[in-house]
């Protein structure tokens, strides 16, 4: 049974928590005693923190799980406030789909555009625009059509391919699991029909990348990010590019002849070779080797709430377990959140703003473009003076 990971995003009080509660309720993944404890308020199922209930908002990322006969689901419920956009970026990393919730009464807002920018930034494959609270506007088809047409302009600018639009009322279940009798004019899929047929992103099965997390004697442990590794495979170890051959693979405590993407494994080599945390191990190829250099261009979302981006200041770049001292040497452009235009003259990048920048690392790093191996083409920038995460980035080329 496969797993689909998706995230909900929207303004405060657009109904994200109610929507998730409805999905859990409709799929019979809520026990009766839980329903009784929240007095049938579906929103409170995901608002687990007392402070959140008191304020009536979701302020932290919440994860929920449910299962249907077809597949398993992992839901990320992200906060809607501007100042918690960093939570959305973190929560959305690695999801297969995003549900962008729009209150039919309010239409598209700046936060809608910002959440759509996050979807574009992270290259999320499946985008659903759920226009909620249709009951408040008497299930008016024209309201739905107007918001849809306005959003299509946004999706075109952000290159969000083929977003799906669904009019819903999460509170009453309209078009969530069953077609709404109140919106006979809509003949598309329900939200659950869409999720059940959504294709999860597949790891690149042809290119092996292994991130070393820990070294214990002659073995190194970590996660196989993509591809396959087999006993006997020749491998390259970055940085410095050392060469070795795999002698043994453990998955857990069991010997295995091969490992697949997503496995947490231990590797042993025929040669007595030095390996460290942060090394990237790749199967030796005549082609498909990772890029290996000191100068890269990245698209980033600045997350630091205290300090803006400072050109030529020293930061730490991290991709998986690889870390390198770096400086951001130039801002190529900043994206205007209202028009999505690329502004090449504005050189200030502050909290929750998106920009393309040039980074120089002290030592060469091994990486892959995001579109080839997402797991090895994204990372974070850390402020060494505070250890705060200053930015999240992806490498497009």
Secondary structure layout:
Blueprint: E1 3-10, H1 16-26, H2 32-37, H3 50-55, E2 62-67, E3 72-77, H4 85-92, E4 97-103, H5 110-121, E5 126-132, H6 141-158, E6 164-167, H7 191-197, E7 209-216, E8 219-226, E9 228-230, E10 234-238, E11 242-251, E12 254-256, E13 258-260, E14 264-269, E15 280-283, E16 291-302, E17 314-319, E18 322-335, E19 342-343, E20 354-367, E21 378-382, E22 389-394
Parallel strand pairs: 1-3, 1-4, 4-5, 5-6
Antiparallel strand pairs: 2-3, 7-8, 7-15, 8-14, 9-13, 10-11, 10-15, 11-12, 11-14, 16-20, 16-22, 17-18, 17-21, 18-19, 18-20, 21-22
Describe this structure in words.
17% of the residues lie in helices and 37% in strands. The longest helix is centred in the middle third of the chain and has 18 residues, at 141-158. With 397 residues, it is α+β, with helices and mostly antiparallel strands. The strands form four sheets. Strands 2-3-1-4-5-6 form a six-stranded mixed beta sheet, sandwiched between helices. A six-stranded antiparallel β-barrel has the order 7-8-14-11-10-15. The chain has a six-stranded antiparallel β-barrel with strand order 16-20-18-17-21-22. Mean pLDDT is 88; it is low at 48-59. It is built from seven helices and 22 strands. It has three domains: 3-197, 3-Layer(aba) Sandwich (Rossmann fold); 209-283, Elongation Factor Tu (Ef-tu), domain 3 (Beta Barrel), CATH 2.40.30.10; 291-394, Translation factors (Elongation Factor Tu (Ef-tu), domain 3, Beta Barrel), CATH 2.40.30.10. Helix 4 packs parallel to helix 5 (110-121).
């Amino acid at each position: 049974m496969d797993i689909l990971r998706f995230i909900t995003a929207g303004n405060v009080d657009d109904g994200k928590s109610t929507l998730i509660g409805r999905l859990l309720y409709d799929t019979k993944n809520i026990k009766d005693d839980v329903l009784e404890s929240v007095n049938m308020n579906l929103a409170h199922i995901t608002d687990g923190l007392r402070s959140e209930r008191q304020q009536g908002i979701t302020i932290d990322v919440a994860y929920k799980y449910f299962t249907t006969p077809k597949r398993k689901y992992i839901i990320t419920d992200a906060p809607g406030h501007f100042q918690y956009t960093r939570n959305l970026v973190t929560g959305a990393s690695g999801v297969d789909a995003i549900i962008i919730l729009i209150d039919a009464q309010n239409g598209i807002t700046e936060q809608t555009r910002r959440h759509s920018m996050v979807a574009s930034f992270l290259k999320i494959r499946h985008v659903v625009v759920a226009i909620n609270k249709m009951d408040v506007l008497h299930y008016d088809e024209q309201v739905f059509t107007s918001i849809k047409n306005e959003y299509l302009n946004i999706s075109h600018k952000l290159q969000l391919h083929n977003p799906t639009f669904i009019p819903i009322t999460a509170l009453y279940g309209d078009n969530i699991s069953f077609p709404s009798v109140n919106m006979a004019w809509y003949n598309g899929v329900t939200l659950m029909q869409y999720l059940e047929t959504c294709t999860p992103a597949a790891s690149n099965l042809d290119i092996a990348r292994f991130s070393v997390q820990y070294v214990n004697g002659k073995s190194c442990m970590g996660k196989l990010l993509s591809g396959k590794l087999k006993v006997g495979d020749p491998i390259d170890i970055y940085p410095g590019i050392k060469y070795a051959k795999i002698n043994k693979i453990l998955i857990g405590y069991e010997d295995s002849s091969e490992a697949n993407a997503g496995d947490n494994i231990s590797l042993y080599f025929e040669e007595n070779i030095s390996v460290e945390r942060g090394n990237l191990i790749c199967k030796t190829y005549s082609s498909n080797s990772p890029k290996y250099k000191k100068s890269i261009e990245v698209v980033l979302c600045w997350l630091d709430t205290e300090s803006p981006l400072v050109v030529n200041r020293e930061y730490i770049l991290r991709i998986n377990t690889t870390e390198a001292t770096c400086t951001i040497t130039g801002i190529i452009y900043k994206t205007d959140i209202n028009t999505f235009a690329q502004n090449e003259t504005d050189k200030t990048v502050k909290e929750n703003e998106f920009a393309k920048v040039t980074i120089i690392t002290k030592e060469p790093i091994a990486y892959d473009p995001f579109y080839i191996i997402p797991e090895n083409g994204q990372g974070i920038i850390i402020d060494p003076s505070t250890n705060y995460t200053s930015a999240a980035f992806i490498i497009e080329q």
